[in-house]
Amino acid sequence: MANTSVFTGADGSLTLGPGVGPEGEVADAIIKEFDILTVGRVQNVRVEVTSEVRPFHEIGQRYATQLRAGNVNVRGVIGRAYVNGALLKLLLGVAANSRPAASWNQPTFNITLLLENSASPGVQNTLTLHDVKLTTWAVGIPEDDFVLESVAFQALYISVEDEA
User: Fold this and answer.
1) Looking at residue 60, what DSSP letter applies?
2) In which band, very low, low, confident or very high, does the pLDDT at 77 lie, cut at 50, 70 and 90?
3) Which of 83, 94, 97, 137 has its Cα between 20 and 30 A from that of 51?
4) Phi, psi of 24, rounded to the nearest 5 degrees
5) Strand, coil or helix: 94
6) What is the mean pLDDT of residues 125-145?
7) Phi/psi zone of residue 21: left (φ > 0), alpha (ψ -120 to 50 degrees), beta?
8) What is the pTM assigned to this prediction?
């Protein structure tokens, strides 16, 4: 049965999990150091999946005669109340503390977004973003509002699981 439940941001949670290999080990150490398995104080989480579709046009035809599927990209952004350097370290790894003399591993991790309405027990949506790398980090320090950080990310692929 398809999930037809309606969710709000209050129904959601965002958790991080380590990736695989040396880059995953770096992320796992940061996740444990800052205890951010469940990332709190997030807002405006956006996940975007794009599929490049390429039309084939024949000479003499105004409409495409075929659409070909191309590359798929998974990217998004997360806003978070700024508390510590955890997300910046997930972007830079060891380079967040100093300038390394050589190349270093950029952390890779998984993001799980869970939407579950407590008024409808057993109905949930789970999005898992696999092998995520952060691409940008920014912090805003307004005069009279909350200090917020924002990160953009790219994932290798996404999987979805609905339970109704």
Assistant:
1) T
2) very high
3) 137
4) -70, -35
5) helix
6) 94
7) left
8) 0.88
Using DSSP, state whether 107 is helix, strand or coil.
Answer: coil
d(CA 89, CA 131): 16
Compute the distance between CA of residue 120 and CA of residue 108 in angstroms, rounded to an integer: 34
125: tokens are: 């949506």
N-to-C CA span, the chain:
6
| Upper half-sphere CA count for residue 114 (Cβ side, 13 Å) | 14
Amino acid in position 11: D
CA 121 to chain centre: 26
Q: In 10 A of CB 157, how many CB atoms?
A: 12
3-state secondary structure (DSSP) of residue 76: strand
Exposure class string for 27-66: b at 16+ Cβ within 10 A, else e: bbebbeebebeebeebeebebeeeeeeeeeeeeeeeeeee
